[in-house]
Specification:
Radius of gyration: 19 Å
Bound molecules: magnesium ion
Shape: elongated
Number of helices: 10
Strand content: 5-15%
CATH class of the largest domain: Alpha Beta
Distance between the termini: 18 Å
Number of strands: 6
Largest sheet: 6 strands, parallel
Helix content: 40-55%
CATH architecture of the largest domain: 3-Layer(aba) Sandwich
Strand order of the largest sheet: 3-2-1-4-5-6
């Protein structure tokens, strides 16, 4: 069936998450070190366990990634009390540094431009709070190419929950066969989209790709560069059928 839209994951698909995250955490550490005596090792440990606690309690919801909750837990551990000014400042410092240091992956901008030129609709399907994902889209300067954004915050559950993909199809007013999902996660993106009948493309930048035994985790196609999606949509390369 002719495709009408492309669904993209955001983090680690359209940009690399780790470089800006590392710089943002370093900025947070520097900010906190101005206020209290704290080694980098201790900070990393406290941040890690704060994040683990939030994940354990909120796994599957957008709040599981909300940095304000990580920093609240962290400050409760370092200060044994609530310190609104510090928590809010760390949150601000984190996202300021993150946004400043993030950039689109190779070939993303030209691919989005080409897709729009060919009249495809584009939606972002992402696990996070809407406020932050909107800020990322604005910073990456790609908002004019994006027709819809669906976040786990508005859907109520994270990928691979079907609601993320069904809500996206609903906004686009399209059927599963009329779109393709592109993402880096076998579970979140591939299994989630496959389970509602959406064809999938796994983006794997590393050299190795270990195929999953789970049938829902089998992408229709594996790509190394985002621009390859143009060839797939234009039938220039054969599409692998999933067996299920
Ligand atoms: Mg991702």
């Amino acid at each position: 069936m002719i495709k009408r839209a492309v669904l993209f994951d955001l983090d680690n698909t359209l940009y690399e998450y780790d470089p800006p995250h590392k710089k943002a955490l370093f900025a947070v550490y520097k900010e906190l070190k101005n206020k209290i005596k704290l080694s980098r090792k201790k900070f990393d440990f406290l941040f890690k366990i704060s994040k683990q606690e939030i994940h354990r309690e909120l796994s599957g919801t957008a709040s599981a990634h909300n940095r304000i909750l990580y920093f609240q837990r962290l400050i409760e551990k370092t200060h044994n009390t609530i310190e609104p000014a510090i928590i809010l400042k760390l949150y601000e410092v984190y996202w300021k540094a993150f946004l400043k240091n993030m950039s689109l992956s190779h070939g993303v901008l030209s691919t989005l431009k080409q897709l729009k030129k060919q009249n495809y609709m584009i939606a972002i399907v992402s696990d996070m709070t809407t406020h932050i994902q909107l800020r990322k889209l604005r910073k990456l300067k790609i908002t004019k190419y994006i027709d819809y954004l669906v976040t786990s915050e508005e859907a109520g559950s994270e990928k691979p929950h079907s609601i993320m993909f069904l809500l996206t199809l609903n906004k686009l007013r399209l059927k599963p066969e009329e779109v393709i999902m592109v993402g880096d996660s076998l579970i979140s993106d591939i299994e989630g989209a496959n389970s509602v009948g959406i064809p999938t493309a796994l983006i794997k930048k590393g050299r190795f790709y270990k195929q999953s035994e789970e049938s829902y985790q089998k992408p229709n196609v594996v790509i190394k560069e985002i621009s390859e999606i143009l060839d797939i949509l234009n039938f220039k390369i054969p599409r692998v059928q999933t067996t299920r």
